[in-house]
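Worked example 2:
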Amino acid sequence: MNAAGVLKTYFGYDSFRNGQEEIVQSILSGEDALAIMPTGAGKSICYQVPALMLPGITIVVSPLISLMQDQVKALNEAGVHAAFINSSLTETQIAKAMRLAAEGRYKIIYVAPERLESAGFMQFARNGKISMVTVDEAHCISQWGQDFRPSYLKIVAFIDSLADRPIVSAFTATATREVRTDIECILKLQNPQVVVTGFDRENLYYSVEHIGGKRKDDFVFEYIQRHAGESGIVYCATRKNVDNLYEKLSRNGVSVTRYHAGIDNETRKKNQDDFIYDRVQIVIATNAFGMGIDKSNVRFVLHYNMPQSMENYYQEAGRAGRDGENAQCILLFSAQDVMINKFLLGKKEFEGMDIDDIELVKQRDTHRLQVMEGYCKTTACLRNYILEYFGERPAAPCDNCGNCHQEYYEQDMTSDAKWVINCIAEMKGRYGLNIVIGTLLGAKRARLKEIGADTYRSYGVLEQRSEADLRLLIDQMLAEGSIVQTGGEYSVLQVGDIRRLKEEDTHVTIRKAKEQEKTANRTKKKKTDALTGAGFDLFERLRQLRLVIAKEEAMPPYIIFSDKTLIDMCARVPKNQKEMLAVSGVGENKYQKYGERFLQEIAAFLSENPNAVLSAQIDGEEESASVAKKGRKDAFYLKQEDAEQFPYAEYYYISDIREQLNRICSASNVKQVTLTVIWDYLVAAGLTIEEQGAEGYVKVQTERGLKLGIKTIDKVSQGGFAYQLLMYPEAVQRMIVGYFVEQRAKI
């Protein structure tokens, strides 16, 4: 029986959907595969059909018990013998499932990633014929994905332990280009067939409603009344919001249940089943609900609060309309949502993660939150905003979203914008959004009087404006770069590039949608803008080399070298070890591991293109500095008077040093120093290196570092994970401070 016959016989479909057949045929020809397909596009068919045709067993690694149970139940209903192995079974049941599989009873076995390490399962897998290992929700293997699960990293070792390498296939609905590359590299996919079917769900109608406080409750209740008899999901950011909304809807006679991690397992399972089997109309839930829930008739998804990322929103909203029929995805946004998500991200745990990686993940989380906030505030096409985030380039607005159907009018606020700049300048960039707006409106607050804002020239000059208008204006100025906002829990507003505001014919206008407050989409320059056409060609070649090495090492490409480092290679064009070590991000250890291969690639490119000009930075650092002064922040440095304020201690962690450096720095146009920048200096100074350990690469001190007093501290995380951190004595602290004082002369 061919693939089309299996599809018809077991699943009842006459033909494959877009992208499915391509993946199926690739797997049947023995190729690895990676598929990025939106929720509802039929990812499971892509591995289930070939699993039935391959000679041995297919192991499907899945993150959630409910997902496995749903899939196995559906397969058995279709006449396909399948089983799952996870913590919901007894050891006797697990042993029986593996015995039946070994006897040929099951063609497909779903397993939790943790199960891959158990001795019994390893013995079963090594003795049996494993034709394919399928990784579902594959974005969980990337720590840059929104649902990173360290247990997914066990998959690689499991595959490597098998005598005969099986076909490896991976599937996900939410993966940016960066996460996609991580999946390919970490899983060691061999020349995979990569299929991206597109992220557009034409049957979904997206809209954003700017509603705060109790008005959200009223909106949800009225919406459900207008859609009586329809099935829907309401997502909330916190358990408290779930419980409160559930109580209010229940009291008003709505057929509703709830789901969050604070409810006991038995009740949670019952509530989920009540919704799946249409015993209740509505489920109120946190993001703990929904992964793998294959309920086709969800007609609407309401978000009571803004999610933390576009990946989360796309996945959650995508649970509407899986049957292909029209459905609505409505997000209720208020400024409080941003504060809630910052608080939740601040409580995020990073068990077992390297301290530098934690810093990078926090930066990614902050960026994702900013992207999501941008979605809530944009006046552009909402569908296109989503598609562009995932790497697509739509040709025109969709004419099927709330923004496309909204009428806007423009309001000139040029004079107001200049007063905003004056106010921030008077405050010397020390205060946040609420203080700035309160000052401009002339608010009577004790805090404003305490800091002397009531004596500023800008105090009360815009009292005729509404707070909503000023927030809208400042959002737009942030997007345009005339104002910048620092990161962290207590962000402040600072003056950015205001050259355009000084031009006589400049006009600053905002788009207003009746009573809604929305701002234009934010655009950012690419890091590769400094490269010429030839420079970009070299950059792409270096990226391909990095990809090859990443696959060999089974690690994400950024661990080899970041894009920033590759761009710097293109600008500097190093020809030997000394010049390569001058490239940002290239330390001794990384040079020893990868340097020669990159030097050879650069030399080969130069040989093929002897007269090529690769970068606009012809004069090296001096030109780079002049570019930075045109509106971009300089690299971190310290003034001598700042350095004298550093509170030296007997020992500091690297994170402590970073915090003290940022605290004492008084320079107004520099980036905050990061852990990576400090670490790169320590490596370049010969004090620390990265070494291959039993659990991967670890940071250790060199012999010189030991002599200077750098010591290793053993730590244990709350989850019981043992790890080590380095602590740096006063002598090293002084070296670091001195280094950043020296950097001022280079700016």
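The radius of gyration is 28 Å. Residues 634-746 form one domain.
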